[in-house]
Amino acid sequence: MTIWIPNRDELSRPIHTSLVSAMKDAIADGRLAVGTQLLPHRTLAHKLGISVHTVGKAYDELKRQRLIDGHVGRGTYVLDPNLSSSQPYLMERGDGEIIDLSISRPLFNSVHIETMESALKSLPDALDHDTYLACRPNVGLRKHREAGANWLAGCHLEVGADSVIMTNGVTHGMAIALAAITRPGEIVVAESIVHHLMVSLCSYLGLRLQGLEYDEEGVRPDAFEDACRNHEVKVYFSVPTIANPLTTMMSMERRKELVRIARKYDVLIIEDEAWGPLIKDRPDPIATLAPERTIYLTSFTKCTVPGLRTGYLVAPDSLIPAITGRLVAFSWMATPLISELASRWIMDGTADQLVRWQQDALSERYKIVEEEMGGLNWRGHPNSLHFWLDLPAGWDTATYVNHARSLGIAVAPTQPFLTPNSPATNAVRIAVAGTRDPKRFRRGLSAIRNLLRRPPEPITHTL
């Protein structure tokens, strides 16, 4: 297929601005169709007789305007200008026109609303002044850390309250942990398809994120050891229980083998167990196997209600000063009033009740997924908030996401989850809680399944 390129004679100075205008016009009138892979910087520069730097400036501006997107090694593609400028997985919607299957979030119903309303009304009862007047201790109020230790015991991690640091959710904890134990330029390893916020955080902190080969249990031990042998790996980031986005579940044997390698090469571990509380019969955390080198993170966000952004961080004593310092620098302390709500739910059993409700509700959704996705190449778990769908030959991720959006369905594309060295992967993450109505959820799955029964066709828009 011949890819459109602008006429060099029609470009005026400044060249990169003129090139942007020409490409915007070509995207608008269809000469550069949605999903088209653009020429590499060097190739286009050669054809136009301009510098690679000039092409790079033009591409960067088009990316900023959300007209194209791409990464080194995977190519640059034209996005649909008729769609919102925000990525679907970053957009929050209710049960409106769009069936939003892009956000990995828990299911909810009237029970959650009534429980939260009741908790907020009763919050002033027996509320001591320290909960809203104190600025210290930065690691969290003692009563909140004691409740946190109680919660962590249910996560198979027995620690004292002094070992618990309060956070505003796992993402907050990830940022604090990375900033505390790394310096710019150091290497972090994980699956080559990994939690998208780890990709972002490593980029912001100037860290080198290296993706490793994985299988149905997560990172392969041989890939981990090869990386440690050939590079100075500082941190291994792991989501061993229902990995985001791959939904892999790591066995205890695999956890032990990865810990052995981490000890051999003196690698620190960040363990993200945000999804852990949802799994009834899960192996013990990596932190129980290697407490001397593991920073453990979990929270309420994925297992109760998203707005209760209370998290818990447990780390080796040697790392506590550095972690506390970053906590103070980033946010001073976790929000005590939110921690108070979470603590009351832990101590009165509400949190456990909501987790059990979530487990049952997710199991019902999983049955729908099995029925609708039969015959396709997908992976999931009965208690996962999402599943991973590999696209068949003939479909690329950008084209599929755009076609789904044209049908009123949002799914999460692969690109945000790819490490810089990850090969191109055509797949999407599909959340199971995008709509409260199971019938509407089934209709959404049916529509995106039917898309794959035929080759992609150009998307047309009414003018």
Verbal overview:
The protein has 463 residues and is of the alpha/beta class. It has three domains: 8-78, Winged helix-like DNA-binding domain superfamily/Winged helix DNA-binding domain (Arc Repressor Mutant, subunit A, Orthogonal Bundle), CATH 1.10.10; 88-110 and 352-451, Aspartate Aminotransferase, domain 1, CATH 3.90.1150.10; 127-349, 3-Layer(aba) Sandwich (Aspartate Aminotransferase, domain 2), CATH 3.40.640. It has helices at residues 15-29, 41-48, 52-64, 110-122, 130-133, 142-154, 170-181, 196-204, 221-230, 252-264, 286-289, 320-331, 336-348, 350-372, 397-406, 438-451; strands at residues 68-71, 75-78, 99-101, 164-167, 187-191, 208-212, 214-215, 218-219, 233-238, 268-272, 294-299, 311-314, 378-379, 386-390, 409-413, 427-431. It has a seven-stranded mixed sheet, sandwiched between helices. The radius of gyration is 24 Å and the shape is globular. The two termini are 27 Å apart.
How would you summarize this macromolecular structure in one to three sentences?
With 463 residues, the protein is α/β, with parallel strands linked by helices.
| Average residue-wise pLDDT | 90
User: How large, in whole angstroms, is the Cα Rg?
Assistant: 24 Å
CATH superfamily of the largest domain: Type I PLP-dependent aspartate aminotransferase-like (Major domain)
* Structural domains: how many: 3
Essential attributes:
Arc Repressor Mutant, subunit A; Aspartate Aminotransferase, domain 1; Aspartate Aminotransferase, domain 2; 3 domains
Question: Layout of SSEs?
Answer:
Elements: H1 15-29, H2 41-48, H3 52-64, E1 68-71, E2 75-78, E3 99-101, H4 110-122, H5 130-133, H6 142-154, E4 164-167, H7 170-181, E5 187-191, H8 196-204, E6 208-212, E7 214-215, E8 218-219, H9 221-230, E9 233-238, H10 252-264, E10 268-272, H11 286-289, E11 294-299, E12 311-314, H12 320-331, H13 336-348, H14 350-372, E13 378-379, E14 386-390, H15 397-406, E15 409-413, E16 427-431, H16 438-451
Parallel strand pairs: 3-15, 5-6, 5-9, 9-10, 10-11
Antiparallel strand pairs: 1-2, 4-12, 7-8, 11-12, 13-14, 14-16, 15-16
